[in-house]
Write a structure and sequence with these properties.
- This protein is 40% helix and 15% strand.
- With 172 residues, it is α/β, with parallel strands linked by helices.
- The chain has a domain at 47-165: Dna Topoisomerase Vi A Subunit, Chain: A, domain 2 (3-Layer(aba) Sandwich).
- A four-stranded parallel β-sheet has the order 4-3-5-6. It has a two-stranded antiparallel sheet with strand order 1-2.
- The N and C termini lie far apart (53 Å).
- The mean pLDDT is 90.
Length: 172
């Protein structure tokens, strides 16, 4: 309905943008992000630390981390998470490509930034177990109570994780 009500100019601009996306849009050959070239802007940026790889499930996860401005490394997008209930196994996401990349780029650290649900946690645990044999530091993003969060509204699993991963306040 919105498109029917929109001015013809706006509808034509949208259709042109979709056509351009289909013609020029591709997947980065290194990290599997959306790109308009062989490499995405992040992988092509020589200022990024390519020895520091952040593993995420989807392009939207990478975008969220980029928006935070808190990460100066590069990314690896798995294209999903392990989910036996949905018949998604290790061969269905880009784990093999991650291993190849770690060895080829001689990565120093891999940050596992998969979701905190069952599938994301399972994926992180699986990848960390595989990476034990490689000479690479493996870290996991922290999770817990959000800033400004009221404890009475936080679920029990999140509270448990926050308690289990608490840090020394005097060191801050």
């Amino acid at each position: 309905m919105h498109l029917l009500r929109a001015p013809l100019k706006d509808a034509l601009e949208l259709s042109e943008a979709i056509r351009e996306l289909k013609e020029k849009g591709r997947i980065c050959k290194k990290c599997f992000a959306l790109s308009d070239g062989e490499l995405c802007e992040i992988c092509a940026d020589i200022a990024r630390d390519d020895k520091l790889i952040c593993v995420v499930e989807q392009p939207g996860d990478m975008a969220a981390l980029e928006k935070s401005g808190s990460f100066a490394g590069v990314y690896h997008i798995l294209g999903g998470a392990l989910s036996p209930m949905d018949n998604v196994g290790p061969g269905d996401i880009r784990i093999k490509e991650l291993l190849t990349r770690i060895e080829k780029d001689k990565a120093d650290e891999v940050v596992l930034a998969t979701g905190t649900g069952l599938e994301g946690e399972t994926t992180a645990a699986y990848i960390s177990k595989i990476l034990l044999n490689l000479k690479v530091k493996v870290t996991r993003i922290a999770s817990g109570v959000p800033i400004g969060g009221d404890l009475k509204y936080v679920d029990q699993v999140t509270l448990k994780r926050a308690m289990d991963t608490r840090h020394d306040f005097s060191a801050d």
